[in-house]
Design brief:
Shape: elongated
Helix content: 55-70%
Strand content: under 5%
Order of helices and strands: EEHHHHHHH
Number of helices: 7
Number of strands: 2
Largest sheet: 2 strands, antiparallel
Distance between the termini: 51 Å
Length: 212
């Protein structure tokens, strides 16, 4: 059974809204009366009971997430009070947000940076001020535009996915070494590499369907 770990030093217990007993702010339920609790102001890693790091094992992430979500299934709250049904939905929503963020390598990198007080916009297109990254992106874009055969595009897909994987490995090392400057630059690089890789895969799919 998936369980929330005991509160670390500095994380104060809060009163249960139902029985007023002490509750770990990350807990789904009160250990005294069993009432579902409102989601506390925990970060995504804490909410899912994971160590804060860029390198996240998918099996660990999914085990934690689905374990918590099973305990919040609507069928379990069909006979509960309206407040408990509402709180269970709030918990499920918070867990969904944490899971969707941490399972995506780009969103996870931007989120880790945000936790450290740094912002990297991964949603909007912006000016690239890194000459090396700019040249890399332009060369990949040009190659993608010039690809005419399925073999050409397949090679580009493989190259892009290799670049994405390598960037993710570099990000893991940067975060592990607390090198946030490098992590910020690598997150921006991953943003562009991921976009190009997705475009290459989409074009490959179109060409495959057209029999080119």
């Amino acid at each position: 059974m998936t369980q929330v770990r005991p509160s670390p030093p500095g994380l104060s217990l809060v009163p249960c809204w139902s029985c007023k007993g002490p509750v770990d702010p990350r807990a789904l339920f009160c250990s005294t009366c069993g009432a579902v609790q409102a989601p506390g102001a925990a970060d995504h890693y804490t909410r899912l009971g994971l160590r804060r790091a860029y390198a996240v094992e998918t099996t660990d992430l999914e085990r934690q997430y689905f374990g918590f979500q099973r305990r919040l299934h609507p069928d379990r709250f069909a006979s509960r009070t309206p407040k408990e049904r509402a709180l269970s939905q709030q918990q499920a929503t918070a867990l969904n947000e944490a899971y969707e963020t941490l399972k995506d390598p780009l969103k996870r990198a931007a989120y880790l940076l945000r936790l450290s007080g740094r912002e990297v916009d991964i949603d909007k297109a912006g000016t690239v001020d890194d000459p090396t990254l700019l040249m890399e992106a332009m060369e990949m874009r040009e190659a993608l535009d010039e690809a005419e055969t399925l073999d050409d595009i397949s090679c580009l897909v493989a190259e892009a996915e290799t670049a994405v994987s390598g960037c993710q490995g570099s990000l893991a090392a940067a975060f592990a070494g607390d090198d946030l400057d490098s992590a910020g630059k690598l997150t921006t690089r991953l943003k562009y590499l991921s976009k190009l890789a997705e475009e290459a895969r989409s074009r490959k799919l179109r060409m495959t369907r057209q029999g080119l």
